[in-house]
Specification:
The protein is mostly helical. The chain has 17 helices and 6 strands. It folds into 3 domains: 91 residues, Fumarase/aspartase (N-terminal domain) (Fumarase C, Chain B, domain 1); 234 residues, Fumarase C, Chain A, domain 2, CATH 1.20.200.10; 71 residues, Ribonucleotide Reductase Protein R1, domain 1. It has a two-stranded antiparallel sheet with strand order 1-2. The chain has a two-stranded parallel ribbon with strand order 3-4. The protein is elongated and about 100 Å long. The protein starts with 14 loop residues before the first helix and ends with a helix. The structure holds arginine.
Length: 463
């Protein structure tokens, strides 16, 4: 099959080189975007007198037909279609004859590929925001179902302070909110149209790029053709946001895996999101969450691969950049699937209420005891040290903190009195953390209300 660029070549590429060079297996994913961009380009070409009105109509009709071939699964690739750009151009020429060859006037695949990627990414970001918002919705529901459940929080994987379980789940909600805002923000930098940049120096045709902008619904035009064809920063930002979202999921996945273990039994994963072992009949494994944890590694690797791809790459376009798409498509698919599975896990998660505080050690109240002393006039640093000694004394006496006698506690500070024993109440402990953002009932409910408002405003914004 003759190449679109075959004129300058005396002999054709080796079969091996041809396969090595082809990006069609990956970029055929961009057929919709390629047709859209080409069809808009035809409008600008007609405006620049490259096509007559009648020819434009023919070309547009052909693009419609090609689009239908794709959506009906009837488009056939031919040997020599090295990427989606050449495949669609070849098909156009087949359909409209020689005038089709004018579609590439002043145009380069260097600008086509980034144009397609940008169109693809804008739509993808919108879709991802929707999928994250759905998970936020399930998360907020779970949080409001668990505001009355009190669990230990952990720092250094050691019991730290008591918190409301709903407070814990709201933390996921707000991390996801940051993810959404990151995607919304980076979308602005995707929304810049490169078409009209040519191979590197800009087009020699009198192209009205504003027509292209309008046809393709972009917010602005790339102000520099070199940057337009060279830079993949917008993909890098996207891959970072995808990796960060997956890192968020991965950390909650890890907690839930631990909480689902026999040692904790705080939660139980639904059968739908667990799988069995081929050897050990008793096993019910949290594979859904383990996979999400694993998928985060892929997303990080994809970001890394795009960064390394560009480092040290001379300006402007080099074929290395063709390798950007596998990372991109893989992260999109990985992220969307992981979000949906995580949503399923969250929506079906059983909370094992009877186990939540079973293993809580009295020492979890140590900060409350220090606060007790502080409220009675002991400077916090001294209170910290007194409570440290109190913990040691309890270990020494093989007693729980709340079982130390009044004389024992008074031996460490005369600020202690009988009301010391009232500290050991989980409800009281969480209620004392009544600062904005804290774990008291009122503050967690405040967070849930804020979440409901964010979700309904986002929903209304779509309409
Ligand atoms: N398939 C190429 C890519 O994905 C399109 C651009 C090719 N440009 C070129 N001059 N060979 O990057």
């Amino acid at each position: 099959m003759p190449k679109l660029w075959g004129g300058r070549f005396a002999i054709s590429s080796s079969k091996l080189m041809e396969e090595f060079n082809d990006s069609l297996p990956v970029d055929k994913n961009l057929w919709r975007e390629e047709i859209k961009a080409s069809s808009a380009y035809a409008v600008a070409l007609a405006e620049a007198q490259v096509f007559s009105r009648k020819e434009l109509a023919l070309v547009q009709k052909a693009f419609h037909a090609i689009e239908k071939e794709f959506s009906d699964g009837k488009f056939t690739y031919r040997p020599g279609d090295e990427d989606i750009h050449t495949a669609i151009e070849r098909r156009l020429v087949e359909k409209v004859g020689a005038i089709g060859k004018r579609i590439h006037s002043g145009r380069s695949r260097n600008e086509q590929v980034v144009t397609d990627e940008r169109i693809f990414l804008k739509n993808t970001v919108d879709k991802i925001i929707g999928v994250i918002a759905a998970l936020q919705n399930s998360t907020a529901k779970l949080a409001s179902d668990t505001v009355d459940d009190i669990v230990p929080s952990y720092t250094h994987m050691q019991q730290a302070q008591l918190i409301r379980l709903g407070h814990y789940f709201m933390s996921l909600f707000f991390m996801l909110e940051n993810d959404i805002r990151r995607f919304m923000d980076l979308r602005k930098r995707i929304d810049v149209l490169p078409l009209g940049s040519g191979a590197v120096a800009g087009s020699t045709l009198k192209l009205n790029r504003n027509i292209l902008k309008k046809e393709l619904n972009f917010a602005s035009l790339s102000p520099n053709s070199i940057a337009a064809v060279s830079d993949r920063d917008f993909i890098g930002e996207f891959l970072f946001a995808a990796a960060q979202t997956l890192i968020h999921l991965s950390r909650y996945a890890e907690d839930l895996i631990v909480w689902n273990s026999a040692e904790f039994r705080f939660v139980e994963l639904d059968d739908m999101y667990s799988t069995g072992s081929s050897m050990m009949p008793q096993k019910k494994n949290p594979d859904s969450l383990e996979l999400i944890r694993g998928k985060a590694a892929r997303a990080i690797a994809n970001l890394n691969s795009l960064l390394v791809l560009q480092k040290g790459l001379p300006l402007t376009y080099s074929k290395d950049l063709q390798e950007d798409k596998e990372a991109l498509f893989d992260s999109v698919e990985t992220l969307v699937n992981s979000l949906r599975v995580f949503d399923g896990v969250i929506s079906t998660l059983k909370i094992k209420r009877q186990n939540l505080s079973g293993n809580v050690d009295d020492s979890i109240y140590a900060t409350d005891i220090a606060d007790y002393l502080t409220e009675r006039g002991t400077p916090f640093r001294d209170a910290h040290s007194i409570v440290g000694k109190l913990v040691l004394l309890a270990i020494d006496q093989k007693k729980r903190l709340k079982n130390l006698t009044i004389d024992e506690i008074k031996s460490l500070s005369d600020k202690f009195s009988e009301d010391y024993y009232q500290i050991f109440d989980p409800e009281k402990s969480v209620e004392r953390h009544d600062v904005y953002g804290g774990t008291s009932l009122r503050r967690v409910n405040e967070q849930i209300r804020l979440a409901t408002r964010i979700l309904s405003e986002r929903e209304a914004g779509k309409k």
